[in-house]
Amino acid sequence: MIAQTKSGKQIINVKGENKAKLCKKIDGNTIAVVGNNRKLIVYSIKEIPELNKGKGVILQRYKDGTLSDIITFNFEDGISWKMNGGRHRVEKELMTWQGKRGGAGKMVPNGFPKPPLF
Question: Of 117, 89, 94, 118, which Cα lies nearest the Cα of 105?
Fold first, then answer.
């Protein structure tokens, strides 16, 4: 993170017992969110509004789970993740997991790692 002042700049506020779980660099036009319940949802980065400092948005709804990981990517390139044995898998057919921001998502594709991390 880059700040304008020498002493730094606060970039996030969390209230009470809440904690920030992830902080990732945005690199692409699409976001994929996966929960520890192994549900994945993919949507455009444009669906995420820019809010005032300390405010948040719902990325994915969970009935029985929490956020596990997030990745941003170019839609044309697809999502990639590491598999067992050091192999990489790239999934370009993402229509199954596409949805609106805040949706529950669908089960991850076969071969997705446990725990669900990109």
Answer: 94
Which pLDDT value is given to residue 30? 95
**Residue 112 domain-assigned (yes or no):** no
Residue listed under structure tokens 């990109």? 118
Read off the pLDDT band of 8 (50, 70, 90).
low
Q: Output the six-digit token pair for 52.
A: 């005032």
- Residue 51 included in any domain: yes
Is the pTM higher than 0.85? no
Residue 69 has pLDDT above 80, yes or no: yes
Cα torsion 27, 30, 100, 47: sign: positive
